[in-house]
Amino acid sequence: MITLGEYIVAKQYQFPEASGEFTRLLGSIRLAAKVVNREINKAGLVDIIGATGEENVQGEEQQKLDVYANEKFKAALEARGEVCGVTTEEEENFIIFNSKKQSHSKYVVLMDPLDGSSNIDVNVTIGTIFSIYRRISPVGSPATKEDFLQPGNKQVAAGYVVYGSSTMLVYTTGYGVHGFTCDPSLGVFYLSHENMQIPAQGNIYSINEGNYVKFPDGIKKYIKYCQERDEQTHRPYTSRYIGSLVADFHRNMIKGGVYMYPSFASAPKGKLRLLYECNPMAFLAEQAGGKATDGYRRILDIIPSELHERTPFVCGSRDMVDMVGDFMQEYSADGHPEYHKNIK
Ligand SMILES: O=P(O)(O)OC[C@H]1O[C@](O)(COP(=O)(O)O)[C@@H](O)[C@@H]1O
Ligand SMILES: [Mg+2]
Ligand SMILES: [Mg+2]
Fold first, then answer.
1. Burial of 344 (0-12, 13-18, 19+ CB in 10 A)
2. 226 and 307 housed in the same domain
3. How far apart are CA 280 and CA 300, in angstroms?
4. What is the pLDDT at residue 341?
5. Which ligand is nearest to the CA of 120?
6. Is the shortest distance between the CB of 219 and ligand 1 below 6 Å?
7. Which of 96, 123, 206, 318 could bond 259 through an S-S bridge, CB–CB 3.0 to 4.6 Å?
8. What is the pTM of this model?
């Protein structure tokens, strides 16, 4: 069995200008993932359950594990010196790492340190999401906001850690999607899923139907389509919603399916964050043969303007994402971000 570290080194030939910086950067994410995984596994026994009583920049109540994971990933990225700055869901502003070595680093990282926070206290699968870019500001100078506001199609790597029945780290560097499972007895990630491929068509739809009445007509019609009986197209589909993006995405990655978090009246841009939730998942989905849109446009082509901006999200099996797009065009064309601009 090949370890994550060995696999990354073995694939370095794919990057002729490689200096080992990226390998060490991924190594720091791997290390922090192990530390966070250990805390999650004993969550009921240590004081890591429950809320901190503080609110984060999203206006959401921060969970103790959100803060713990945020601190551990930040510390690991800062310590190795391969990153000149980070943005995380739990920090209002981006953080500059400014030691001599760090300011000479080429990379910035954006993270959702703990994804699926509403599932922490109930022992349901949660995750961590990361996205990596080459900086655009000059090497040697402090990182700038522009380094983080790059479109998703500029990512050099993305991945997630899923803390479930087993703990896996899944990533892409633009050469396919590869999954590594952690052997808890050794704390070592071994290659278990090389070149993951999302089936083009699945029979699982994943959405919080509790918001049904608030959804755009295109989404409502698509949900009805999923629930209709039609032997030929294996409908009705199955509804599965864990409420942790990482877990719902990972399941659909393996079994096929479509995950949707649309916009609605009280959340005109949806809930999920473009930079450290949707862009990394979109890069992984496309690298595995799937697709990711905001219901209309390719997520990876959206030009970000704010660190914590949100976007509607439709992601998973290619043919299912296309079908959702057709329903949105037909029944919610006025919801297209460009719609009002194009109305003369
Ligand atoms: O409870 P809702 O509204 O369905 O939202 C669930 C979604 O929100 C999230 O929990 C948001 O992520 P965080 O937990 O990192 O804030 C996603 O993981 C999940 O898919
Ligand atoms: Mg999240
Ligand atoms: Mg989070």
1. exposed
2. yes
3. 9
4. 53
5. 1
6. no
7. 206
8. 0.96
